[in-house]
Amino acid sequence: MNKKYSELLQNHSLHYLEMAFRTDKCALLESPDGYGKRKGTCGDTVEMFILVRNERIQSVTFISNGCLNTHACANTVVLLTEGKSVNDAWSITTEQVKNYLETLPEEDMHCAELAAGALYLALVNYREHKYFPWKKLYRRK
C-alpha cells in the first residue's frame, strides 16, 4: 500500500471513506424532474438530478469533475436527500454534510457548499417545472 493511500485511510472516518469512494449514484439522468449545476471557485463542478414522486424525492444522482472531497460531499447530499419530502430537502445544510462525513477538512467546506448548492438549484428547477411545465420543454443543456 502506498503512503498517500495509507494516510487517506488513517486520516478519515469510515463515513468519509464510504462517501468518497461510492459510485452507484454517479449518473446522468436524461429527464429529471429537477436539475442543478454549480461550479466552485476551485473549478470543481457538481450537477444534481432529482426524481420526485408525490412530492417525495425518490432518487438523486450526480455527476462531478471534482476532487475526492467534492465527491464525498455530493454523495452525502444524495444520502441525506433521498426519501425526504421536497420541502424537507430544503433544510439540508452544509453543516449536516460536514457532520456526517466527520473528517472533511475545514478548508474544504466549499465542497459541501458546492454539493448543497447544486441540490438547491435542482429543487428550484423542480418547483419551476411543477408550476410552469412548459418550461421543461425549453431546458438549457
Brief synopsis:
This protein has 141 residues and is of the alpha+beta class.
Structural account:
The structure is a single chain. This protein has 141 residues and is an alpha+beta fold. The protein has one domain (3-138): Sufe protein. Chain: A. The protein has six helices and three strands; from the N terminus they run ααβββαααα. It has helices at residues 3-11, 14-21, 68-81, 86-89, 94-101, 109-131, and strands at 34-39, 45-53, 56-64. A three-stranded antiparallel β-sheet has the order 1-2-3. α2 (14-21) crosses α3 (68-81) and α5 packs across α6 (109-131). The chain is elongated. The mean pLDDT is 92.
Segments where pLDDT lies below 50 for 5+ residues? none
Q: How many strand elements?
A: 3
How many angstroms does the end-to-end distance come to? 42 Å
Q: Helical proportion?
A: 40-55%
Main pleated-sheet profile: 3 strands, antiparallel
Instruction: Write out the strand line-up for the largest beta sheet, numbering strands in chain order.
Output: 1-2-3
Question: SS-based structural class?
Answer: alpha+beta
Beta strand %: 15-25%
Instruction: Assign the CATH class.
Output: Alpha Beta
CATH topology: Sufe protein. Chain: A
Layout of secondary structure:
Elements: H1 3-11, H2 14-21, E1 34-39, E2 45-53, E3 56-64, H3 68-81, H4 86-89, H5 94-101, H6 109-131
Antiparallel strand pairs: 1-2, 2-3
Helix pairs in contact: 2-3, 3-5, 3-6, 5-6
Question: Key terms for this structure?
Answer:
141 residues; alpha+beta; Sufe protein. Chain: A; three-stranded antiparallel beta sheet; 47% helix
